[in-house]
Amino acid sequence: MERLTLKQFYDTMLLKALFFSLPDQESQKGFQHKSISNAVVDGIMQHCHCDQFVVCYQEWSIKKPFSLLVEHPEHMVKFQFELEGSSLFTDEEGKQIPIPSGHQQFIYLPTTKGSLYYPLSRKVLDIHIEFDFLLAFLREQGFSRTQLKEHFLVNSWTFFREAIPITFEQQTLIRELLAHSFEGAFAKDYIRCKAMEIMLSVFSEKVDTVSRISWKSQDLHILQQIRSYLDQNFAKDLQFKTICRTFGINEFKLKKAFKECYGDTVFGYIRKARLKHALHLLVDTDMDIKEVSYICGFKYPHHFSQLFFQHYRCRPREARSKTGVIV
């Protein structure tokens, strides 16, 4: 059986690089398009980057069954709707995630290393998402963070113990997402809203709702402003008291509300943002590791290396030599 690397299949070492690369052509109905042609597949990929998540649809005409080798040090979080065909992920120890035709699964992997087996032509919709954003979004809909953490079965990789059938409602939403006739900025907004409907539908029948969160809408608006500020300024020398004064919120409320809404402390969030950016610089550039550490806001390279190892379980130099994919 043919075994391909990501580079051989997509002509890139990181699938995420496709999502953030400059398009070869103008978007059509909000989607960027890419042709796929290699020894095992002819097909198309279309994707739309919606800030905290990416919507990606692929159609493959498979010439022969094959395996795709994948490895990536970052967390992989996605919804997968296997509309036609099937996929089977197997890690190094033999643990598997099978998704047959017409089924769905929500997948959370701390690292991705193993192989994907594809025996048949397929159509698949993937929504790659930031986990903290997903938790915050669902909490705004009235879901309990505690319940969500329990049901996600993070240690078991998946939300559902086995892949479940795609519902009629979800099939309708997916058709509407893919077959709309809008163009320009409105098309992207439409895709974003429709994708969020699809994501919410995954949990609506599986997680009991609880009383609405206790934070006022004004508090949540301030938190969103602070999070946006941190996303843009994580590499700066940020001070907690200065952030509180700038956004008019007291220290106790910010500590408690930020932790509840985003699942991390303010500086834990900043540290993860710095490490994530550092990883991309290591993979996508030949920048010196010391320079990467300074650019990302770390004062001391040795401290950066320690934190990087704690988060990704590999040294910065090792991460640079690895290849992988967000599947």
UniProtKB/TrEMBL annotation:
<dbReference type="Pfam" id="PF12833">
    <property type="entry name" value="HTH_18"/>
</dbReference>
<dbReference type="GO" id="GO:0043565">
    <property type="term" value="F:sequence-specific DNA binding"/>
</dbReference>
<dbReference type="GO" id="GO:0003700">
    <property type="term" value="F:DNA-binding transcription factor activity"/>
</dbReference>
<dbReference type="InterPro" id="IPR009057">
    <property type="entry name" value="Homeodomain-like_sf"/>
</dbReference>
<feature type="domain" description="HTH araC/xylS-type">
    <location>
        <begin position="224"/>
        <end position="322"/>
    </location>
</feature>
<dbReference type="InterPro" id="IPR018060">
    <property type="entry name" value="HTH_AraC"/>
</dbReference>
<dbReference type="InterPro" id="IPR053142">
    <property type="entry name" value="PchR_regulatory_protein"/>
</dbReference>
<keyword id="KW-0804">Transcription</keyword>
<keyword id="KW-0805">Transcription regulation</keyword>
<protein>
    <submittedName>
        <fullName>Transcriptional regulator, AraC family</fullName>
    </submittedName>
</protein>
